[in-house]
Design brief:
This is S1 family peptidase. Keywords: Disulfide bond, Hydrolase, Protease, Serine protease, Signal, Zymogen. Belongs to the peptidase S1 family. With 316 residues, the chain is of the alpha+beta class. Helix content is 15%, strand content 43%. The strands form 6 sheets. A 6-stranded antiparallel barrel has the order 17-18-19-22-21-20. 40% of the residues are buried.
Length: 316
């Protein structure tokens, strides 16, 4: 069975030596052997089988380049050079195929007989990552993402009520608040749509992402850092636990006090401690002061949030 790396080297060598007679190359998944497509009979390639085809790879690539200049309707999901079938494959979502898609396909086929059509049942959408400390938007308000959990993330309860729609850092629809408590506590669970993938990351703002390894609670006096979409990455120490804070909206119990600063929009963001800051601690609730003159900031510990909603923290 051919080694994948060796096959790649043979294919590149064949492409260089055959020039316009090169029609592409692929590894047969059943045999593991490399096949090189050629446009003229009698050609051979050391270390590979050969197959005579009608179109060179440069012809197929040229056809695709023309399609790249065409404005495709929504039902056309993709197009690609398929070396194994010696064609340019256009995929169309059969569930939403319409006259505009048929006209686009007809034009594509008129460009080259190498164009083939394949029907699919879904259309692709962009995929985005969930990362602690990134901005989240609720209507005209902004908060920060806390920690990724299976199927979504946690943040502060005062950021939104159950049913509140939320968008991500890029203003793309992200999901809805599945549960929220404030006052009394200050936590919420956001259930995200399939376009967003939970990652075990916290934005260090200017540095590499922090990898969340666990959720062991830090002791009083421990160094702690937080991430938020307004003031980025800020650090301090744990000053007290189980503090009750009396906000104008009502008191919140069980908060942890720190001397790390925060400002509006940082709410809901991640707090981390431990080696490499890999231990998730909680989400920003509120405080006093600012990051110019200094301040006191409180966070809602993470473990009660996970317990309340039966959530599993995303870990690296």
């Amino acid at each position: 069975m051919a080694n994948d790396a060796q096959s790649g080297q043979v294919a590149e060598s064949a492409k260089s030596s055959l020039g316009d007679a090169f029609g592409g190359a692929w590894i047969d998944q059943a045999t593991g052997r490399l096949t090189v497509a050629v446009t003229r009979s009698g050609l051979s390639v050391t270390g590979a089988d050969t197959k005579v085809v009608a179109n060179s790879l440069s012809q197929l690539t040229g056809t695709k380049s023309v399609l790249d200049l065409m404005n495709a309707p929504a039902a056309i999901t993709s197009w690609r050079v398929d070396e194994q079938s010696n064609s340019v494959v256009v995929e169309v979502n059969k569930n939403v195929r319409d006259a505009a898609a048929d006209q686009w396909i007809a034009t594509a086929k008129s460009i080259s007989g190498a164009v083939k059509v394949a029907e699919v049942t879904e259309s692709p959408t962009p995929l985005y990552d969930l990362r602690g400390g990134d901005a989240i938007y609720m209507g005209g308000g902004r908060c920060s993402l806390g920690f990724s959990v299976t199927g979504g993330y946690v943040t502060a309860g005062h950021c939104g009520r159950a049913g509140t729609a939320v968008s991500g850092f890029n203003r793309v629809a992200q999901g809805t608040f599945a549960g929220s408590v404030f006052p009394g506590n200050d936590y919420a669970h956001v259930r995200t749509n399939a376009n967003w993938t939970p990652r075990p990351w916290v934005n260090r703002y200017g540095g590499a992402n922090v990898i969340v390894r666990g959720n062991t609670e830090a002791a009083v006096g421990a160094q702690i850092c937080r991430s938020g979409s307004t003031t980025g990455w800020r650090c301090g120490t744990v000053q007290a636990k189980n503090q009750t804070v009396n906000y104008p909206q009502g008191s919140v119990r069980g908060l942890t006090r720190t001397n790390a600063c925060a400002e509006g929009g940082d709410s809901g963001g991640s707090w981390v401690a431990g080696s490499g800051f890999g231990q998730a601690q909680g989400v920003t609730s509120g405080g006093s002061g600012n990051c110019s003159s200094g301040g006191t900031t409180y966070f809602q510990p993470l473990n009660p949030i996970l317990s309340r909603y039966g959530l599993t923290l995303t870990r690296g």
